[in-house]
Amino acid sequence: MEEAPSMNRPTLKAPVFDEVCETTGVTLTRFMNEVAILNPEIAEITTLFGAIDTACKAISNLVKRSQLPSSETLGYQGNVNVQGEDQKKLDVITNDLLKRALRFTGRLGILASEEEDEPVDLIGNAVTDSEEIVIDEGEKYVAVFDPLDGSSNVDAGIPTGTIIGIYEHDDCCEIDYDCVDEEDCTEQEAQCLANTLQPGTNLVASAYCLYSSSTFLVLTLGNGVYVFTLDETIGEFVLSKPNIKIPEDCKIYSFNEANLEKWDEPMQKVVKRWREGTGKSGERFSSRYIGSMVGDVHRTLLYGGVFGYPADTKNTNGKLRLLYEGAPMSFIMEQAGGLSTTGKRRVMECVPEYVHQRIPLVMGSKNAVQEVIDEYAESDSAY
Ligand SMILES: O=P(O)(O)OC[C@H]1O[C@](O)(COP(=O)(O)O)[C@@H](O)[C@@H]1O
Asked: Taking every annotated instance into account, which residue ranges of this chain make up the domain Fructose-1-6-bisphosphatase class 1 C-terminal (predicted)?
């Protein structure tokens, strides 16, 4: 897999709110307005976050109401998505909801989603059936998203989430002519693909929304990680934790341990040492695993720990998707001071070869993830 050089992007100026007196009244809208004032060059992104704000509130409501007897959103849609997964009704509904919210900002050139077979080119197809979408001349972006991560858990009321990554759209990005020749795709389609298959180092923003005891929207614009909590009384996301940092040390790991024996050796060795308390920290780790990436990553960010879905003899590339799960969550983890690796590579530097590509993933507290990286470096593991 190709590795991408790091992008030298100017660091954004982040609005500063001190912990105690200022945060109580800082809504996401106000936060984004302050970001736009401090960084006029990315003012357009704040419009996208307006759409994300609305869509996540609507999804939060849908998820909460989905358990009610009157709800028609439980169960399966009857279709199978491009990855062979049975689509839940909520997968389809939340996908449509987010697609529409983002499209009508007029700022989006392309979107790619777990529930869409191919990237959707909004520039090439500006007119869709009855709804004409006007794409502004201004800055355009590419959005990649997993509309309802962990949806297999939704019927049991287990936390689920939405994951979003935002890239700049480059009208004159280099296209892969092989794709044009061999796969008979048009130049426009090749350009659409090239704009979609960008490495995490190109991300300009990423966010996840966790639908759980509360609804949390966690985001980075490349200068720290900010946690907003939905205040249902005013219907606004309110800044609850500015500029969070993940603890460098930890004693919690979060993996589907049922796969442990199928993992490759370095991963097995490290987790067995953590279980016995014979790892670098000498701490005996405890295990926590929800089986919903957004829930497991949110806990890991706040309490410290290591979350991952390593490669194994069944899922030789792991289970999680690089473009709309791995990279956006790695951007947030790194911005909070953590690390994210495949074991051998920094996830953010991996260039996706196709939209639904899977990648082995281990992310979390710096010193523990470094232990995994060191173990892979020592081993000449095939993975
Ligand atoms: O059930 P497993 O194999 O442990 O996999 C759980 C992982 O799969 C996922 O549910 C995959 O996500 P999707 O629901 O978006 O396909 C992750 O949220 C979670 O971390």
From this structure: 246-374
